[in-house]
From TrEMBL:
Pathway: Amino-acid biosynthesis; L-serine biosynthesis; L-serine from 3-phospho-D-glycerate: step 1/3. GO terms for molecular function: NAD binding; phosphoglycerate dehydrogenase activity. It comes from the Eukaryota. The keyword Glycoprotein does not apply. PANTHER family: D-3-PHOSPHOGLYCERATE DEHYDROGENASE 3, CHLOROPLASTIC, FORMATE DEHYDROGENASE 1. The keyword Nucleotide-binding does not apply. It catalyses: (2R)-3-phosphoglycerate + NAD(+) = 3-phosphooxypyruvate + NADH + H(+). Its main location: plastid. GO terms for biological process: L-serine biosynthetic process. This is D-3-phosphoglycerate dehydrogenase. SUPFAM superfamilies: ACT-like, Formate/glycerate dehydrogenase catalytic domain-like, NAD(P)-binding Rossmann-fold domains, Serine metabolism enzymes domain. It is found in: Plastid, Chloroplast. Keywords: Amino-acid biosynthesis, Chloroplast, NAD, Oxidoreductase, Plastid, Serine biosynthesis, Transit peptide.
Length: 626
């Protein structure tokens, strides 16, 4: 029976359903020439995002109870504010970061502000720095009257910042993603060791006046198999340290390059092999719609009895009720948790109270060194943004010329969808290492700005497999961090350059996934697309020519070319009430190999996909969310 490739559902991310917002009124006149790139979403119409709206200045209003100053004093204050921006630091920040900020800005450290107080202060500030405790809502951006230029999140997660509102108001959002990497890895190792040797329980026992040596016999780490789930920055640091402790380390991350793992002596394995062979599991995967509760009853049932789990990543990747059941049944011997689905967890949380669980209150980044490092990293990003420099850690959008985006709008959608499609065909294989993008155009290279296209292709490739936000500023930075090499090539056509791009081809080399071998003899995933009447179309998969709209999601089937195939699959989808918007078949020759591409408006059920896989002439198939 043909099945969807590998553990595709483990790591790929569902498509965004965000709406396009109209351009807001900004305070800088030059903003009228720019449109934020993250306003580009997978929507059929871009008229509102690229309409030529008139942007006006919003005057800075004094509070009603502000003291009346002489005209000369007001001018002096205004002159000083123009010379030196104001940074509001709303939560505690390391002194090294504050000192750096003070070199270029007036720094206002006001902690524990209510939402109302923050909204009152923000209209006098050019930058805002927060940690996780301050909610930067749409109301905050509205209250800034357009003066707020940058929000700095001192840490990695940006759940407390309304990114869409920030983008609409032309405010850059930056974070500090690297400074706490080592701290998080060390905390994971510390929890693993403490769990293995029952340190927390033994300590509590002694503090209660007991001496119970025989009760707290632990297990050794040396010689045990550690599975690292998610081989990003933190995961690879955990692997290095675990190998130093004499552990056998393997990892699962369907998108991590195998050679990067081998460089530190780690083998990448399938999800099933990982969970069935692990003595210890350390979680470092991002929380996406499809990794949410990936460790559930079904996963625990397939694990080696007596395995131990450490989670310093995201609480939501574990079904907490299922973990309680696994602990009670003995499938999981122990767990060490630094993160929870709800933080802080309720007082009656069963895991917090469980005798087989060690818990800490999200301390992954809580070392003095990490705190200082985060302070410096976020201060550098904010200072750079205030100077007008491009920030490599930007998580929403830079500003690019509106006329460029207006012309390239449908090709930007095409590029992102091709990237998203290509990376899902890799799932379960050797990972993404080398990507080649080819643009066919009748325009000379100096008349075609491909930076936006490149960025959105990278976005399509990276975002389904990580929690990274990708945009024009950080696309190359993020791809480099993931170990992905991106190259570009332009094919100059003889045709008249009425349209900026004739076609875009995305090729991922050195792929060992099943679908890659099914559509290519050279171990490559190649997808190509065009824009027809403003709508992105898939025009080629491997060596097979197809023509299918990319407005919805896509089912790709590699099959024997024989009568009745379109009807067989179409009937299955029809019976499941799945609407087909496009269907195309490409083949090598009659009655030989073919690829059928089916565009669907609705997500097929697992039962429907199984029925498609059971069709005897279908050799491989995959459902791709775009």
């Amino acid at each position: 029976m043909a099945t969807a490739m590998g553990r595709l559902q483990a790591f790929h991310c569902a498509s965004s359903s965000s709406k396009i917002a109209g351009n807001p009124a900004l305070t800088q006149p030059k903003s009228a020439l720019y449109t934020p790139i993250s306003a580009l979403r997978l929507q059929p119409s871009f008229s509102s995002a690229f309409s030529g709206q008139t942007l006006t200045n919003t005057p800075l209003k004094l509070r009603a109870n502000a003291p009346i100053l002489k005209r000369r004093s007001i001018q002096a204050v205004a002159s000083d504010m123009q010379a030196k921006p104001t940074v509001l630091v709303a939560e505690k920040l390391g002194e090294a970061g504050l000192e750096l900020l003070r070199t270029v800005a007036n720094v206002d450290c006001s902690y524990n502000l209510s939402q109302e107080e923050l909204c009152t202060k923000i209209s006098l500030c050019d930058a805002l720095i927060v940690r996780s405790g301050t909610k930067v809502t749409r109301e905050v951006f509205e209250s800034s009257h357009g003066r707020l230029k940058v929000v700095g999140r001192a840490g990695v997660g940006i759940d407390n910042v309304d990114l869409q509102a920030a983008t609409e108001f032309g405010c850059l959002v930056v974070n500090a993603p690297t400074a706490n990497t080592v701290a998080a890895a060390e905390h994971g190792i510390a929890l693993m060791a403490a769990m293995a040797r029952n340190i927390a329980m033994a300590d509590a026992s002694m503090k209660a006046g007991k001496w119970q040596r025989n009760k707290y016999v632990g297990v050794s780490l040396v010689g045990k198999t550690l599975v690292v789930m998610g081989f990003g920055k933190v995961g690879s640091e955990v692997a290095r340290r675990a190998k130093g402790l004499g552990m056998h380390v393997i990892a699962h991350d369907p998108y991590a390059p195998a050679d990067r793992a081998r460089a530190i002596g780690v083998d990448l394995v399938s999800f099933e092999e990982a969970i069935s062979s692990a003595d210890f599991i350390s979680l470092h995967m991002p929380l996406t719609p499809t990794t949410a509760k990936i460790f559930n009853d079904d996963t625990f049932s397939k694990m080696k009895k007596g395995a131990r789990i450490v989670n310093v990543a995201r609480g939501g990747v574990i079904d907490e009720e299922a973990l309680v059941r696994a602990l009670d049944s003995g499938i999981v011997a122990q767990a060490a948790l630094d993160v929870f689905t709800e933080e802080p967890p309720p007082k009656d949380n069963k895991l917090v109270q469980h005798e087989k669980v060690i818990v800490t209150p999200h301390l992954g980044a809580s070392t003095m060194e990490a705190q200082e490092g985060v302070a410096v990293e976020i201060a550098e990003a904010v200072v750079g943004a205030l100077k007008g420099e491009l920030a490599a850690t930007a998580v929403n959008a830079p500003m690019v010329p509106a006329e460029v985006l207006s012309e390239l709008a449908p090709y930007v959608i095409l590029g992102e969808k091709l990237g998203r499609l290509a990376v899902q065909l890799v799932a379960g294989g050797s990972g993404v290492k080398t990507v080649k993008v080819t643009y066919a155009s009748g325009r000379a290279s100096d008349d075609l700005d491909t930076r936006v296209l490149r960025a959105m292709i990278i976005k399509g490739i990276i975002e389904p497999i990580s929690s990274s936000f990708v945009n024009l500023v950080n696309a190359d930075y993020v791809s480099k961090q993931r170990g992905v090499r991106i190259s570009e090539e332009r094919v100059l056509l003889d045709s008249s350059p009425q349209e900026p791009v004739e076609s875009i081809q995305v090729q991922i080399a050195d792929v060992e996934s099943k679908f890659a071998s099914a559509i290519s003899d050279s171990g490559e995933i190649t997808v190509e697309g065009k824009v027809k009447d403003g709508i992105p179309h898939l025009s080629k998969v491997g060596s097979f020519n197809v023509d299918v709209s990319l407005e919805g999601s896509v089912i790709l089937c590699r099959q024997v070319d024989q009568p009745g195939m379109i009807g067989a699959v179409g009937n299955i989808l029809g019976e499941e009430n799945v609407n087909v918007n496009f269907m195309s078949v490409g083949r090598i020759a009659p009655r030989r190999q073919a690829v059928m591409a089916i565009g669907v408006d609705d997500e097929p059920s697992k039962a429907a996909l199984k029925r498609i896989g059971d069709v005897s002439a279908i050799e491989e198939f995959v459902y791709l969310e775009l």
